[in-house]
Amino acid sequence: MKRALSNPLALSGFIIISMIFLLALFAPLIAPFDPDAIDVKAILLEPSSSHLMGTDGLGRDVFSRMLYGARISLLVGLVAVGIATFIGIILGAISGYYRGWVDVVIMRTVDVMLSIPTFFLILAVIAFLTPSIWNIMIVIGLTSWMGVTRLVRAEFLSLRSREFVMASETLGATDKRLIFKHLLPNSLTPVIVSSVLGVASAVLIESGLSFLGLGVQAPQASWGNILTDGKEYIQFAWWLSLFPGLAILITVLGYNLFGEGLRDVFDPRSSRNR
Amino acid sequence: MNPTSDQHILIACGLNKTYTQRSGRFGFGNSKVKALDDVSVSLRAGSTLAVVGESGSGKSTLARCLLQLQPLDSGEVMFQGNNLAKLSGHALRQERRHLQMIFQDPFASLNPRMKVRDIVGEGLLIHEIGSPKEQLDQVVRMLERVGLKTADLNKYPHEFSGGQRQRIGIARALVLEPKVVVCDEPVSALDVSIQAQILLLLKSLQQEMALSYIFISHDLRVVRHIADDIAVMHKGKIVEQGRVTEIYAAPAQDYTRNLLNSIPGRKPLAA
Predict the structure, then answer these.
(1) Using an 8 Å Cβ cutoff, are A122 and A135 in contact?
(2) Interface contact A171-B96, CB threshold 8 A
(3) In whole numbers, what is the pLDDT of chain A averaged over residues?
(4) Shortest CA distance to A122 belongs to which of A148, A150, A146, A141?
């Protein structure tokens, strides 16, 4: 971890993510207004000292809504990627350890899943379910485990023939021990990198869904639906579109920087300045 | 030389192993490589059998097949009255306790995420030998026996040199007090000066613990120091086997003669 943070890319990404996390965590303390409180006397106010990011068409404070929206974005990102990573590790491990027909079945399933455009698959599934934050997290998780599966499988295949794994087998280790003591701990590094990068895309997908009205439902705030509210007023209330857009940009950038930085640290072959 | 009897502790009979290599377009036109072609070797109790040959001759495959790390196509490996090739699951894991392996690459043979105490103690843990306290004592004794210190217990493999890592690998293999140890090129990745130390260590451990070695090597100078018997492999077949002294003095096969003549600083044998 210390080594990871000595990398400038990883460090800047980490700082960005931590700040957003802190803001989201302490949203109730920081937010000057109730994010859902409608104030008809303060409709579409420009950013000022009392309303840092202005107010929206219903007079709600945009800054407060942004803080609560951050909670949604981060939660969706983490839980969705958590689900995807969990599925990916299990399927990848089975595939890479046992090989044979199980491997064939799993890998062809991965190919099929990858051949479907994820965003449209999610749109179709969400259209059948009630759009809610939990459904979104589960659906994003269930449609983005393929990369991790491939990574873990590849790691297992190459580690399986390494001498320390054979040594443990010679000592009499069971499959369970080989997998959990030797193979898994040594194959997690690329998984961590891809998961961090995965959070960025999950955040984007959630914002996109909420923007289209299939994600987090009003009045609950999400960066995506603040953007939607803003598009009606875009010609004269720029702050309604700018701030959520910037927030999404910065969050995704933060995760990507952190992920790329970690990759450089963990994989010396891909590093530029060493 | 070691006191050796003519009693055989491990007998491998008629081993065959073929690798299928996918080649050509779309995997049509598979070519088969015979890594082991009707190989039979036997190891006398308390002695060292060297298996020599050039790279690709099948000697490492032989090592792995003896330990059932790779399945055999046919043949049997008799050890303590059991045919290892027929065992699987729990029975095989139990038998493996007495049949250990020392690996070639000291950098690849230790799990980089485990401490020395866990690496060396893994066998004891797997076979549930003694209490955790006794296991730790045993690990310490073994480490001291191979020339490492108690302070090394909590270190990770990357903190050691190649020679020290190989000592850890030896400690791991011997902590279960096996009867037979397969050494797959145990010194070929080490500096010459370290090679001698490790060979001496292996030799003295053999006498103390009554071990029998199968010593895989391509280096005939090393083999001469450690082996009692020798089996020469070429293209998956055993072309010649016998006592080291006899074969070094009078090789019967051209291939063996060529191998011996390739030792630097050795007087060429007459054809």
Answers:
(1) no
(2) yes
(3) 88
(4) A141
- How many other C-beta atoms lie within 10 A of the C-beta of residue A52? 15
Residues of chain B in contact with residue A162, where contact means CB-CB under 8 angstroms, are 108
Burial code of A210-223, b = ≥16 C-beta within 10 A, e = fewer?
bbeebbbeeebbbb
Share of chain A above pLDDT 90, in %: 50
According to CATH, the topology of domain B1-92+218-271 is: Rossmann fold (3.40.50)
- Spell out which residues of chain A touch residue B123, defining contact as CB-CB under 8 Å: 171-172
Helix ranges, A143-183 (H): 146-160, 163-171, 175-177
DSSP 8-state class, residue B84: G
CA atoms within 13 A on the CB side of A183: 31
Q: Which residue, B116, B126, B135, is CA-closest to B96? A: B126
The whole-number pLDDT of residue B110 equals 93
**B141 and B159 in contact (C-beta within 8 Å)?**
no
Cα dihedral sign, A222-A224-A229-A233: positive
Question: What length is written for chain B?
Answer: 271
Residues of B in contact with A161 (CB under 8 A): none
* Rounded distance between C-alpha atoms, residue B119 and residue A122, angstroms: 46
Contact A109, A101 (CB under 8 A): no
Which tokens is B111 given?
């799990």
Contact of B264 with B222, CB cutoff 8 Å: no
Domain ranges (residues) in chain B = 1-92+218-271
Any chain A CB within 8 A of the CB of B239? no
- Residue whose pair of structure tokens reads 């270190």 in the numeric block: B155
Closest CA to A190 of A274, A96, A253: A96
Asked if residue B239 lies in contact with residue B208, where contact means CB atoms within 8 angstroms, the answer is no
Chain A: which residues have CB within 8 Å of chain B?
162-164, 166-174, 177, 181-182, 185-186
| Domains of chain A by residue range | 73-270
**Which among A164, A170, A185 has CB closest to B96?**
A170
Cα separation, A209 vs A132, in Å, equals: 11
What pLDDT is recorded for position B87? 85
Contact between B22 and B30 (Cβ < 8 Å): yes
Q: In what order do the strands lie in the sheet with B31-44?
A: B31-44, B8-21, B74-79, B82-83
Residue B4 has pLDDT above 50, yes or no: no
Residue range B82-108, pLDDT digits in tens: 888 888 888 888 888 899 999 988 889
Q: Which fold has domain A73-270?
A: MetI-like fold (1.10.3720)
- The residues, ordered by sequence, that sit 6+ positions from B221 with a Cβ below 8 Å of its Cβ are B263
Q: ipTM for the complex?
A: 0.85
**CA–CA separation, A249 vs A231, rounded Å?**
17
* Conformational region of residue A34, where left means phi above 0, alpha means psi within -120 to 50, and beta covers everything else: beta
